[in-house]
């Protein structure tokens, strides 16, 4: 192999040889180490990481308390499978999630490994409880890469490709988008039309929705829309599932995104920032719904792994001890104001939006229709990386640049990131 290659180039060449193209890597970077909101590649270049493992690292890379909890747990028991023997930290994680989401009501939790697993099991639980089959999700929503996950996902590319046929009895409704002129009333009218023309509400087991669409473009569901969904689900005996996989654990300024709307979901899916980088997910919900499947109907060999549970308990402790919600809100205001200032200078930023520290910019063409400009978004991402900032894209048209920095990012780092983004925009 050419000795003039950098270490990044050498390893990426091996990646090309040994890893299939179907798993995309957003940046031509091979990471060597990371801490907090910073990451260094194998050639020693430092980056500000405003991706955070795609919203996984709200407490930052390698938080010392998470690292210590993992080390301690590995020395005690790394894996036994909760389906074989119980262990205390699984039960503790379940109890804390039940309290965080259910408050004083009786909620139960079951743990898995990935967000897609959580979504699939939430659908199983809802179907088992209602004895109905249909599920409604939303255009622009993202619910995972398993076959049911991509069917629920409201985007055709790159997720669906030629992977069909897809599971039946899945319907897609319109999600509000104020920037594109879709109001809550518009979306609710289309949902009611779907009930009238495609599937009667008494055949619907569940409606699943993200309080803020993650991969769909960081669109926040208006309070009145979520409240209306809650009312319709109650009226028709439909299980309301809130997918909090990306929005949960402080990303939006509250512990969970649905809390902005003053509603109570029936089931909530969690993952990503629950365990500080360890693979852990869960379904949390009303006890009578969660108990619908009979013994053996739920599970997974690695679900609720003991090491991941130890990490999750450390993460939940950090939220209590360090007031990360307040810290995230301060950073969110700084980032949002900075993005608005950049928008004034760069009119191709069509929209600045988000909830809490879940912020994004939508890149548009220079035309009256504000047409989505995916190529420009990609160029901004590439130029930002050259400047030392890692960000990724989202949106149905892949023209939205999203920011998922850890809640432990410093104000100085946010200011530095905005300077890097300014440099990137200027280069476009």
Q: Care to describe what's here?
A:
The chain is an alpha/beta fold and 428 residues long. It is built from 13 helices and 17 strands. The strands form four sheets. Strands 4-12-11-10-7-5-6 form a seven-stranded mixed sheet, sandwiched between helices. A four-stranded mixed sheet has the order 1-2-3-15. Strand 2 and strand 3 form a beta hairpin. Helix 3 (64-74) packs antiparallel against helix 10, helix 7 (184-197) runs parallel beside helix 8 and helix 12 packs across helix 13 (411-426). The radius of gyration is 21 Å and the shape is globular. The two termini are 34 Å apart. The model has no long low-confidence stretch (mean pLDDT 97).
pLDDT < 50 stretches: none
Largest sheet: 7 strands, mixed
Q: How many strands?
A: 17
> What helical percentage do the residues reach?
25-40%
Percentage of residues in strands:
15-25%
Outline type: globular
Write the layout of secondary structure elements.
Elements: H1 7-18, E1 31-35, E2 38-41, E3 46-49, H2 52-55, H3 64-74, H4 88-102, E4 107-112, H5 115-130, E5 134-138, H6 147-152, E6 170-173, H7 184-197, E7 204-209, E8 212-213, E9 219-220, H8 223-236, E10 239-243, E11 267-270, E12 281-286, H9 287-290, H10 306-322, H11 324-345, E13 349-355, E14 358-363, H12 374-387, E15 389-390, E16 392-394, E17 400-403, H13 411-426
Parallel strand pairs: 3-15, 5-6, 5-7, 7-10, 10-11
Antiparallel strand pairs: 1-2, 2-3, 4-12, 8-9, 11-12, 13-14, 14-17, 16-17
Helix pairs in contact: 3-10, 4-10, 7-8, 11-13, 12-13
């Amino acid at each position: 192999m050419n000795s003039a290659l950098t270490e990044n180039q050498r390893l990426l060449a091996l990646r090309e040889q040994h890893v299939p193209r179907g798993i995309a890597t957003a940046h031509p970077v091979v990471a060597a180490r990371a801490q907090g909101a910073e990451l260094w590649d194998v050639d020693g270049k430092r980056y500000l990481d405003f991706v955070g493992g795609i919203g996984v690292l709200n407490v930052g890379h390698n938080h010392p308390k998470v690292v210590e909890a993992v080390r301690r747990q590995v020395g005690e028991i790394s894996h036994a499978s909760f389906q074989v023997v119980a262990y205390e930290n699984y039960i503790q994680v379940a109890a804390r999630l039940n309290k965080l989401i259910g408050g004083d009501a009786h909620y139960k939790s079951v743990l898995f490994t990935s967000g897609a697993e959580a979504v699939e099991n939430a659908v199983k639980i809802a179907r088992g409880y209602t004895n109905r089959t249909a599920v409604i999700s939303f255009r622009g929503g993202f619910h995972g890469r398993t076959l049911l996950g991509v069917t629920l996902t409201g985007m055709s590319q790159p997720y669906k490709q030629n992977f069909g046929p897809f599971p039946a009895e899945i319907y897609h409704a319109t999600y509000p988008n104020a920037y594109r002129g879709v109001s809550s009333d518009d979306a609710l009218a289309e949902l009611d039309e779907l009930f009238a023309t495609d599937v009667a509400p008494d055949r619907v087991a569940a409606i699943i929705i993200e309080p803020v669409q993650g991969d769909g473009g960081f669109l926040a569901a208006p309070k009145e829309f979520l409240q209306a969904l809650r009312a319709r689900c109650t009226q028709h005996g439909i299980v309301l599932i809130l997918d909090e996989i990306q929005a949960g654990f402080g990303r939006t300024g509250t512990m969970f995104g649905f809390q902005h709307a003053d509603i109570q979901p029936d089931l909530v899916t969690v993952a990503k920032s629950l365990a500080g980088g360890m693979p852990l997910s869960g379904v949390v919900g009303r006890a009578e719904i969660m108990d619908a499947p009979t013994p053996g109907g739920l599970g997974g060999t690695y679900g609720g792994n003991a090491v991941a549970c130890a990490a999750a308990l450390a993460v939940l402790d950090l939220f209590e001890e360090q007031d990360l919600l307040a810290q995230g809100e301060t950073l969110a205001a700084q980032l949002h104001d900075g993005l608005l200032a950049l928008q004034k200078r760069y009119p191709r930023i069509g929209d600045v939006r988000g909830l809490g520290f879940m912020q994004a910019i939508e890149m548009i063409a220079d035309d009256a229709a504000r047409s989505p400009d995916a190529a420009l978004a990609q160029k901004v991402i590439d130029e930002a990386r050259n400047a030392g900032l890692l960000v990724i894209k989202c949106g149905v048209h892949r023209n939205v640049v999203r920011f998922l920095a850890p809640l432990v990012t410093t104000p100085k780092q946010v200011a530095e990131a905005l300077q890097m983004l300014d440099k990137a925009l200027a280069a476009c």
